[in-house]
Amino acid sequence: MNCCGCFLMHHLWIGSLVIWSATGLRLNIVSVILGGNPAYEYGISAPTYDVAFEDANVTYPGMLRDVTRKTIFQLGRSRTCDDEVQSLHDALLSIYGTLRGLSGPTLVQTPGCTEMAIVLGDFAREMNFPLLISSAGGDIFMDPRFPTVIGFGPADHASLRDAAVAMLQAYNWTTISLLCGTLYQFRKPFDITACSSLKVKLRKNRYDVIATDFDPSKVETYAGLMRSVQLTSRGM
Q: Is 72 helix (H, G, I), strand (E, B) or coil?
């Protein structure tokens, strides 16, 4: 889910680089990926950034000719957001040195958790650079304390539920199929909670929810699931 958030976020904002490319000015884009949290680790997050930029370069040839990309990566074994924040504190000097060594406008992006984004948000304010957060979320980033933070990933469960209901209302859909990979051996608590809370929210709002729990590791093709969705609902 967070991986998808990163990917979609980049396709939402990367189009703005078309306008920037017309200025002829160089732009630095720095990705900060720290720790080993399964939801945010380098192996998951970094490829989504690469794919988004490669797609943009195909759609808008030459758009990235004045863009320099850098990645600040520090391996860890973080299992909680507190662990990730500790990794960030350990890496702040390296981040500061990298940013000070760049010339021209610089934008920093991170798939880190909310607490990590809060620390980076304070750092961004003091160094006056825009910070794009793709997984962290919450009303706190609307506070004047974070004038340079731009959030694209409302990862909290309440925001995800509200967004789903708003989409269904916009299209006047009343029946939805909900596919939950909750039978997977290595499922994450976030995914289980997200699916369960979304199911409750939709049914509370009187939507007809057709829920299917499955194990993604045992599904070679999603053709069968997609056919059942096509027969029973308009949205998934």
A: strand
